[in-house]
Amino acid sequence: MRPSSAGRWSLAALVVVIALIVAIWPRDSDTPDPGPTDGPGTSAAPVDRRPQDDAQALAPLRAAADLLPCPAPTGAPPQGPLAGSVFECVGDGSAVDLAAGLAGRPAVINLWAWWCAPCAEELPVLEEYAQRVGDAVSVVTVHTDPNEANALDRLIQYDVRLPGVQDGSGRVQAAVAAPAVLPVTVLVRADGSVAEVLPQPFRSADEVAEVVETHLGVVA
């Protein structure tokens, strides 16, 4: 039996309604929202230093800071969690293989940042300890924020000339499994292995000497 004229019109109207519903029905976008691209909380890959902190921009600050040279390779084979990691020397911009420079001698590595208030009190203490212990222990700082210009400015203010490297991406922190706090002092044996990770500020050279003697066996 053939459908009536009214039935055919009803069917056609139903098809049109269904088509409209499909056209306006909300659906997921093919391209996900990338979210914010600037400001705190972004997922951008970390960098060791800001692009604007180039050699020309940092030259006056480096001259004023007059930091001690970063450790040069000793000839001993670099070992431990820092082996193969190369950083920029804050003092002169040269490339530094930190493990190679520290190999064969106990080391005190201090992680800090220009905005860290306890670091401001601790860095002069570490310099005092470094002068006391001499060549028996290497004392090196690691700046863990990408703003290298501010790091140099702070070292000038603190009158601290310890050698240091720039590590805005936190590679040292990750390699030694240090907690996400500052300051952190890492005690490294002569063979490159980590003896202790100390997430605490030191308030005197005597305190530093005590932990170094306990964990590295060096008396100062």
TrEMBL record:
The lineage of its organism: Bacteria, Bacillati, Actinomycetota, Actinomycetes, Mycobacteriales. This is TlpA disulfide reductase family protein. It is found in: Cell envelope. Keywords: Cytochrome c-type biogenesis, Disulfide bond, Redox-active center, Signal-anchor, Transmembrane. CDD domains: TlpA_like_family (cd02966). The keyword Transmembrane applies. Its main location: other. Gene3D superfamilies: Glutaredoxin. Residues 28-50 are annotated as: Disordered. Residues 76-217 form the Thioredoxin domain. It holds the Pfam family Redoxin.
